[in-house]
Amino acid sequence: MITIDAKNKYYKELNREIKDAPDNAVTVENVCGQRYIGTNSPGKDITVIGTPGNGLGAYLNSVNLVIHGNAQDATGDTMDSGEIIIHGCVGDACGYGMRDGKIYVKDDAGYRAGIHMKEYNEKIPNIIIGGKTGSFLGEYQAGGRIIVLGVGYEDKCPVGGFCGTGMHGGEIFIRTEKLPVNLPVQVEITTATPEDMDSIKAVVNEFCEKFDLKAADILSSHFYKLTPNSSNPYTELYVNQ
Amino acid sequence: MSVNYIPSTFAVLRDTDRCIKCRACERQCSNEVHYYDADFDKMFVHEEQCVDCQRCVTICPTKALAIIENPNSFRKASNYSQQLILENYRQASTGAVLLSSMGNPQDFPVYWDKMLINASQVTNPSIDPLREPMETKVFLGKKHTHINRNPDGTIDMTEQSPQLEIKYPIMFSAMSYGSISYNAHESLARAATELGTFYNTGEGGLHQDFYQYKTNTIVQVASGRFGVSKDYLDAGAAIEIKMGQGAKPGIGGHLPGKKVSDDVSKTRMIPKGTDAISPAPHHDIYSIEDLRQLIFSLKEATDYKKPVIVKIAAVHNVAAIASGIARSGADILVIDGFRGGTGAAPTRIRDNVGIPIELALASVDQRLRDEQIRNEISIVAAGSIRSSSDAVKAFALGADAVYIATPALLAIGCHLCRSCHGAKCNWGIATQRPDLVKRLNPDVAYKRLVNLVHAWDHEIKEMMGGMGINSLEALKGNRLMLRGIGLTDKELQILGIMHAGE
């Protein structure tokens, strides 16, 4: 285990130090806004103490990141594999275009979490948000799974408006009894069946273990499941000139 | 006849004396225009399905065919063309957005054709490129104003920005695998490799077979992030962020599920048959600062070794946008004019949105010079560079290099029927149908691309030599080498050139 003090270090220098660290396990202390942590450090297990900057784990490839603090915008942008575990909140556009791996956020996420998420064959990404999210969750989602647990927000729907706009693949699970507002026409909403719940059991259990929640209580609650009603939402939109 | 009867745009003329009923036309036409009726022992046509791609005309062994415009026409009017009437009929019957392809065909001014190139006489001798050295090699990237030297006197390269070295000032612009075929991509990749220039993957990812050409590949990152992975970014000699496209500024891309074949699905990393949607905005970019963030995330992911290109469509306030991009950390700026091609774009947008590349290029170059940041970024002009003389004029207006796509497709067999969005390209270019794709032979096609660029390069050198200029660097932004013909004062002012005779 290597410990790096990030105090007053520019992100370029810090990320180089993480990448070149002689041990794969790296703890970075006093992080304060440094960008792109984990982006180009294949094989590393990075623990971040403090507040990482934007683009945390962008294009992430075989890196595990644990954040003891809040993450900012564009976390896990176009992430390819690995995991990002955030003991706090995350900013906007978390998991943009993510194609595999997982992002677990203990508390809330900002706007546009999980947009453009994609899956291909065995590569199926997962985002789990413990608290609530802003609007446009899963916008243009093309694959993968987003789960919002809404812990602490049981009295209201824990996702913002326009959830799943342009969605044409994947699934969104929301632990709530209240319907999301302004659902777009592309999205079908159903109550999650026992089979659906079985499909998310493993990842929810893992999430609860990491953040010390009672999985049984959560999994026994009511979940809505959002799926697109077509994988080709715009076929009727065009006519040849 | 319904009220919205759509007459065929073209008429198929068949010389029955020449026709031997070999039915080659029938076999070759993916639009199913020609058919044989055994009862009459005669070839017939579904003319309304003809797109005038000239495939049947070209392969007819007895030269029995000709395609002409349908002489039947609605009553003529300058304000309502037959085309416009038919488009309204189509929309009335479908309720749908009109889709078309390739560059804007409307009658807007082509400023390339209103600029004339200078030549030396008497006082400044012209140069013969066949006998004297002539430099058309270009380095694209940020040029620093200062260099530092190591103790031994060599230049400290660690402080320099990465450069893209191109042997010819002509690159092949972005066309995704999906919009064009595997064989078309292979032709472009091999030609770029042989030429020492670059082709561009477009936003559809990079097919595994083409990683071997990576030294000459520019990889593109667009809002849909298709096929973007660590390997993909590592494979590119440069990374291009697509913010906009000249043919459809302000809107995104949409590859219909039916074009997402097995192979395209693998390359884009999405399931077969699902729509590939690239929305208009990058939802993480709302400002120059956000763009900077994406640029540096790409640089960080690739060890700061590759130039990052930002491609924008030429729009009204392009100069101010370019100024922001030059300050964003991007190494190269691509400006794509409104006559640039596309595999599919809503007709109204293609025909009405954006501005000509000539005006955009001139105003961007001038703005960056005025702000003393021209060296911060290289400029690539795109969107209707049709010939070597267009390219020379672009260099004189300030371009470091040009991107070509339509001429490249012409080189490999495109007949500009403007029907790419139908995905039934009879020439094997804009299609994924295996029987059509195999009509394009990459072994032949790549050589034709190489020929085209060699020919253009020779012409560029001839024109440069005529001006008494022996390096592209001395032509770049040299607007004294251009004169306008038939242009207004305002147009001359924007282009930064004098009128012919001045």
Features:
heterodimer; A: 241 residues; alpha/beta; Pectate Lyase C-like; eleven-stranded mixed sheet; 3 helices; 14% helix; 27% strand; B: 502 residues; Alpha-Beta Plaits; TIM Barrel; eight-stranded parallel sheet; three-stranded mixed sheet; 21 strands; globular
List the helices and strands and how they pair.
The complex is a heterodimer of chains A (241) and B (502).
Chain A: E1 2-5, H1 11-20, E2 25-32, E3 45-51, E4 64-68, E5 83-86, E6 102-105, E7 126-129, E8 142-148, E9 169-175, E10 187-191, H2 194-211, H3 215-219, E11 223-228, E12 238-240
Parallel strand pairs in A: 1-2, 2-3, 3-4, 4-5, 5-6, 6-7, 7-8, 8-9
Antiparallel strand pairs in A: 9-11, 10-11
Chain B: E1 10-14, H1 24-28, E2 34-37, E3 42-45, H2 55-59, E4 65-69, H3 82-94, E5 97-100, E6 115-117, E7 138-140, E8 164-166, E9 170-172, H4 182-195, E10 199-200, E11 217-221, H5 230-235, E12 238-242, E13 253-255, H6 262-268, E14 276-278, H7 288-301, E15 308-313, H8 318-326, E16 332-336, E17 345-346, H9 347-352, H10 357-370, E18 378-382, H11 388-396, E19 401-404, H12 406-411, H13 434-437, H14 442-467, H15 472-475, E20 482-484, H16 489-495, E21 498-499
Parallel strand pairs in B: 9-19, 10-11, 11-12, 12-15, 15-16, 16-18, 18-19, 20-21
Antiparallel strand pairs in B: 1-4, 2-3, 5-17, 6-20, 7-8, 13-14
